[in-house]
Amino acid sequence: MEMSLMIDYKFQCANTTCLPFINIITSSIRNCQVACLARSQCIAATFHRSTSDCELFDNMLNQNGNMLGDVDTTSMNIIGGTRFPPEPTTANSTTATAASTTTTRTSTTTTAIPKWTMIGNMSVARGYHTASIIANETVLVAGGYNGAYLNSAELYDPSTDTRTTTANMNITRARHTASTLANGLVLVTGGQNSGGYLNSAEFYNSSTGTWAVTGNMSVAREYHTASTLSNGLVLVAGGNNSASFFNSAELYNPSTGTWTATGSMNVGRGYHTATILANGLILITGGSSGVTYLNSAELYNLTTGTWTNTGSMSVGRGYHTASILANGKVLVTGGYNGASFFNSAELYNPSTGTWSTTGSMSTTRARHIASTLANGLVLVTGGQNSGGYLNSAELYNPSTGTWTTTANMSITRAVHTASTLVNGKVLVTGGSRSSGVYLNSAELY
Which InterPro entries match (predicted)? Predict the structure, then answer.
């Protein structure tokens, strides 16, 4: 499916036929696209960066020539291609004779065969790094570890399929987080380097290609989560250092460059996940308390600054993934509990606060990555299990609750990154192919 993007524009909607048929909260432009493509009546959408509001339209009456400039918005139209599953395409054949000409119309279905394509290597091998989509849909890769801690950063441009180096971070770090802010800056927090655990933070400005130090967190932490909220603040929760697994959480204000404490989680945890729900709440799942792996989950309410326990998963797990689906549910996959790797998956329903099991992956895995595609499917790549590191990939179909295997990556890898690009492709970078062996390779799905 192809969608045309109109960055910094919205539909003027001078008449009532152009009003959205639904408004939802999504964490990114990509998820707004997914929400539109998952609804058969949706033909266009507008994403508001400052509020994370995603407007879906089913009747535009040729509004493309009636656009209004707005630097806070990106609008998009469905212009071609197919939703999943593919629709028939029509071919014409003509047979001519001396007496007459006959035209025959036949209908066939064409499905692209998924594959992985190796692209240019990064300048340095790295795992435990971050990858963030920034201005002009460029991908910023920062930091990581390859036997030494890294402060280097580089950019991938999907439009030209090229890589360029950019300024180094001020501090080497791995196992940190990177969050794209409403103003386009990328905030990097915490992690670890040869000097120990970090409470420092800095941000990348894509306009200048430079990094600037900002306020420190109150606690040095790694394996934490960071979520960009609808009001522009960034919520950092949990994580660990050599002393403890934390239940503390704090908020970063980009306007002031400062951190303030907010309510603490009910349980200290690291190796967990954080997902922004359509209702604006933040769902935290699983992880480790330092003593045991957790099946508990809790919700953060930005309005009250408090945490509330919600339904527990069927099994304790860390190093798993959590993905928001177009129907608002959250898909959790795989993970590890100190003894076993999992292939199980389950769904969280925000409307009921309960979990239900869904189809299991074909392979047990942890330290993998899950990416939501434009057609609503979820692509899981790589990771590791008791048999070693993995190059396998599989797709989850929310409509059927089932998994299908897809083409393998070219290289086994865990602790890598995966970024869903606007062109619909998935960029995988770096990682580790075996213990102590790190990768500079990258590939596209």
Answer: Gal_Oxase/kelch_b-propeller, Kelch-typ_b-propeller, Kelch_1, Pan_app
- Assess contact for 202 and 167: CB atoms under 8 A: no
Contact between 263 and 255 under an 8 Å Cβ cutoff? The reply is: no
Instruction: List, in order, residues 6 or more apart from 196 with CB less than 8 Å away.
Output: 220, 241, 242
CA nearest to 122, candidates 148, 149, 147, 152: 152
Task: Tell me the two tokens of residue 308.
Answer: 């509330």
89, 90, 91 from 102: Cα distances, Å: 20, 16, 14
Domains of the chain by range and CATH?
2-80 (3.50.4.10)
Please state, as a whole number, how many other Cβ atoms lie within 10 Å of the Cβ of residue 442: 24
The Cα–Cα gap between 148 and 161 comes to 28
Q: Give the Cα separation of 407 and 163 in Å (integer).
A: 25
Distance CA 315, CA 121 (A): 38
d(CA 335, CA 341): 6
- 3-state DSSP call for residue 129? coil
Local confidence pLDDT in tens for the 445 residues of the chain: 556 677 777 876 644 456 777 878 887 888 888 888 777 778 888 888 878 888 888 776 544 445 677 777 888 877 655 443 333 333 333 333 333 333 333 333 334 567 999 999 999 999 999 999 998 889 999 999 999 999 999 999 999 999 999 999 999 999 999 999 989 999 999 999 999 999 999 999 999 999 999 999 999 999 999 999 999 999 999 999 999 999 999 999 999 999 999 999 999 999 999 999 999 999 999 999 999 999 999 999 999 999 999 999 999 999 999 999 999 999 999 999 999 999 999 999 999 999 999 999 999 999 999 999 989 999 999 999 999 999 999 999 999 999 999 999 999 999 999 999 988 999 999 999 999 999 999 999 9
Sign of the Cα pseudo-torsion (20, 22, 28, 32, in order)? negative
Contacts of 88 (CB under 8 A, 6+ apart): 107, 108, 109
- CA dist 378 and 358 (Å) reads 13
Contact 236, 177 (CB under 8 A): yes
Q: Report residue 7: phi and psi, to 5°.
A: -75, 135
Residue owning tokens 């989850």: 396
